[in-house]
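Reply to dn_fold:

You asked what the input looked like. This is it:
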Amino acid sequence: MPEPVPEAVSATLTVERWTRGTLTHATDQIAEEMPVALVYHEVPHVVMLATPADLEDYAVGFTLSEGLVARADEIRGVEVIQGAASADVKITVAWERFTQLVQRRRNLAGRTGCGLCGAETAADAIRNPAPVPAGVSITAAELHAAIAQLSGRQPINARTGSVHAAAWVIPGAGIQVVREDVGRHNALDKTIGALSRAGSNFSAGYMLITSRASYEMVQKCATLGISLLVALSAPTAFAVRLARQSGLTLVAFARADQHVVYANPQRLK
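and this is what came back:
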């Protein structure tokens, strides 16, 4: 059974619905999004539009996947201050990491659909993660069983039809963690953060996402040492090049009856 959805993640609106020439008045569930400011040691870093849920997970995942710290234990504290129209997430990190962060501080607004908006220069945005570990090996049957399981684990999308999901899958055990967000990279960061806060081993599973496999999605996974990324939609050529370079297995167009392997096929049997 899907977990209950907090009301804060959606709004009920009155709409006019036109269907085959007939106009009716109805109510609709619309996904919420709001500005979420990530603030490190009282210094604003970036503002992203995000679904106002699981923001602690988001802060931890973003901090790790963007390489702002090298290890999870360098994140010392997270506090969410929720307002009516926005949220501030205050993050404390190891002091040496904070001094490095100040040097590359990014105080820009990020859009829902963008994953590199916070970077000031191309050099900041284009990082080259270390090669990923051997990680998992799965069969096509296991992969498609997880794909079939995913739709029932997206309660916000079931209400609104407009949010992405990122799911953590353990071979032989199925989907373990799912997080949703209006931004595909936000959903991935939330799942990464949830796993990190639980002390999970990033080499023990793989990531299944409902969005396209763009560059930053591969970059975030490779940064954490996740060796297999599966996307329901298309990849970009930039993402494929990074996946091949980092040794990550990239699968896309993963549907009920198909998938396409774009990089490092050895992990999919």
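The mean pLDDT is 91.
Hope that clears it up.
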